[in-house]
What we know:
Elements: H1 3-30, H2 34-38, E1 55-65, E2 72-79, E3 93-102, E4 105-116, E5 126-131, H3 146-154, E6 160-167, E7 180-185, H4 189-201, E8 208-214, H5 223-232, E9 236-242, E10 257-258, H6 263-269, E11 276-280, H7 283-296, E12 303-305, E13 334-337, E14 342-345, H8 353-359, E15 377-382, E16 385-387, E17 399-401, E18 405-407, E19 411-413
Parallel strand pairs: 7-8, 7-11, 8-9, 9-10, 11-12, 13-19
Antiparallel strand pairs: 1-2, 1-6, 2-5, 3-4, 3-6, 13-14, 15-17, 15-19, 16-18
Amino acid sequence: MTTGTLALAIVAVILAQLTALALVGYHRRKGMSPDRTSHPDTPLAAGNGPAWDGYRDFVVQRRIMEDAAESICSFYLTPVDGQPLPAFKPGQFLTFKLQIDDPETPPPKTLVRCYSLSDRPRPDYYRVSIKRVLPPAGNPAVPPGRSSNYFHDHVQEGMRLSVKAPSGHFHLMEQEPLPIVLVGGGIGVTPMLSIINYLLQSDSQREIWFFHGLRNSSEHITKEHLESLAKGHPNFHLHTCYSRPGTKDVEGIDYRHRGHVDIKLLRLTLQLKRHQFYVCGPRAMMESLVPALEAWGVATDDIYYEAFGPATLPKHQKPKAQVSKPEMAQPAITVTFSKSGKSLTWNPNAESLLEFTEDNDIEVDSGCRAGSCGSCQTALKSGEVDYSQDPDADVESGHCLLCISKPKSDLTLAA
């Protein structure tokens, strides 16, 4: 072998080794999500299990009372099959199918209800924190919340529950690393805890402002946990507001502001720059705060709020600009309920067929009110509907979800 031939052989071997190393590196990078490299604790890192279809059996590993009044209980749920849990987006909820004994009818009644996940994504358990719903003050004739009282009174450690995979359109948006403002009123703190725990555990550098509104220390949950986070993370700013402080509640120690979380407080506290706003709480708070944020100049696309349960709030839209040409009057739409024997003129101001149905005293099942649980699915005998969003639930052929739809034409519903 000549010297030239030997040199060429050595070069060929070196090139082959470099090519092999490059291919190995390429395949390693290809198998790793970009999100995992840039965000070490994104939901993808929480577990490798896929989201499941239908209901999956979970067991209650722990239940912990969170507040002094013992009105809020956290339930720690692990899958019976022991497989890793799928990731979820912080802020989403779980859907439960409950079999509740009804003293008036011997067979157990099936209830479908949704509760926000109250912790960051983890591979081994989910947590929900549920507030017992009592009759309104001064109106004891109104029945208490059936599902929340069932959880508090009957769901014990070791019990099995049927659970759908996490879902919901209210969740942390990570496309833009904007500073975020979280407003949680009462039990509306639960999805905020999921978002806060996720961001801070993953060492996010986003500025986080949390305005926590509640009546007093008797219902103050995770107080020590949140205060510890505020001390340990300079980008996390905690503002606790008591609307009715107790005699032993000390301003500056137990809470920071007296009163409700309102637009005045936000304007006095926040810098004049773009933020993402997340709002979850009583309907009265959202009905006042969401329009006030828009009036302040916050873009509608930067405002997110809880969209299921008793605090459901229709998406607030800014008034449309006046057009010179008047719009054509739309023909009246008739909605017929075959079981109830009612034929009604559709109210264009109704936010959904579910709201229209309830306003006219027609009983239908409902759960999440966000197109996720499927419990309001109703047979559509004739006509068409428009959806305000894509359903998360699987809708059977010839059916519609009342909670996220409006009539497109005259309808006949099997309700």
